[in-house]
Amino acid sequence: MAQPASxxxxxxxxxxxxxxxxxxxLAWLASLALVALVVHRWSVPLLGESxxxxxxxxxxxxxxxxxxxxxxxxxxxxxRAEQVNREALAQLQASLSEREEEIASLRADVGFYERLVGxxxxxxxxxxxxxxFEPGASGDLRYEITLTQNIKRSGLTExxxxxxxxxxxxxxxxxxxxxxLNPQRDGAPRPFSFRYFQQLSGSIMLPDxxxxxxxxxxxxxxxxxxxxxxxxxxxxxxxxx
Length: 241
Hints:
Number of helices: 3
Number of domains: 2
CATH architecture of the largest domain: Sandwich
Oligomer: single chain
């Protein structure tokens, strides 16, 4: 009678193969340890040198930042000082220019007065020597009118002054009379009384949109009247406008 086949197989034990794998594993671990030891001994000096170099670079960078901040501060101070010097120089030049204009104007006035009083000027009766208009602080126009005469040195010349401004408004010619220009005076003229010269000053208001073209000055006195017309450009040019 045949015996049934068994599901189990008898395999002989192989102790040598196990020991072989164990030795290989130990050798691999030993090689890793050796490699780690070599890498550690090789890298530690390099790491130390790298750290030293990094510290040196950080110190150098910090020193450069300090120098940069110092240079920027000095540059800001120098720039501000240069700006202040430029502004002071511009103000000084403007002041010098104003003083030169004042000196030139005063010299012209002194020369005129010396000729007038000294007798070198041309003999003439009452006349309007100059008319000057300058912008005022309140939007008005300041005027200064100089009257002269050098014939009757022994007596005073007396009379009244009025003037009108001729120009264009809304495309049409228009004349602003003394009463319109001086409503606060209620039409009263400006009196004058002098021997050689006199300056009369005041202020007027021109309406918006009015373009002045000339000024007509009228001097009224006993015996004869004087009527002179001055272009507006001349009054502004004499004022330095």
